[in-house]
Design a protein that fits this description.
four-stranded antiparallel β-sheet, single chain, 2 domains, 14% helix, mainly beta
């Protein structure tokens, strides 16, 4: 074998060994400890996640990939749910004068509910009407709909109602 071939062969081997060494070095565990700040991220479903990993990124919120519209949520009477940064507890349905589904009405009627609202900086109990959005903290809250729809032949059982709310940031914020 000619000396030039031997030098090329040794050079190729050196490059391969160096590459393997560099790759192995980059995959070797780094013994440096990482301390992330203790802040938490409030998820749309009301849960919190903390920071993890070498870059201290927030963990993914539960169901973040499958979450639909986070501004709308359905809540039963005596239930609580976080919707777009506002925790809403439905204390009671106080009125349902909506037009029964089996009748013809001149006025559509309205639904009234007593709710407790809570954000990171404010809390209060209010009456919300289906025909009038309310301002709370930095949000506008609307009572969008309710199930079951009223029927003229059935007695209303407010404890079985499920109310749908929409919570959006107040314009101008």
């Amino acid at each position: 074998m000619k000396p030039i071939h031997i030098l090329v062969f040794i050079g190729v081997i050196a490059v391969v060994v160096s590459g393997v060494f560099i790759v192995t070095l980059n995959k070797a565990p780094n013994n440096e400890q990482v301390f992330c700040t203790a802040d938490a991220l409030l998820c749309p479903d009301g849960s919190y996640v903390g920071r993890t990993g070498r870059e201290c990124q927030f963990s993914a919120c539960p169901n973040a990939e499958t979450a639909a519209d986070t501004t709308v949520g359905e809540i039963g009477v005596k239930e609580t749910k976080m919707i777009n940064g506002v925790r809403i507890a439905v204390n009671s349905v106080t009125e349902d004068s909506r037009c029964p589904s089996d009748a013809t009405c001149i006025w559509a009627g309205r639904l009234t509910a007593n709710v407790s609202l809570k954000s990171n900086i404010n809390s209060e109990t209010r009456t919300i009407f289906s025909d009038t959005p309310v301002e709370f903290d930095t949000h506008t809250i609307s009572l969008v709909s309710a199930t079951p729809p009223p029927k003229s032949t059935e007695k209303k059982d407010f404890s079985q109602y499920r109310l749908t709310f929409k919570v959006v940031p107040t314009s101008g914020n």
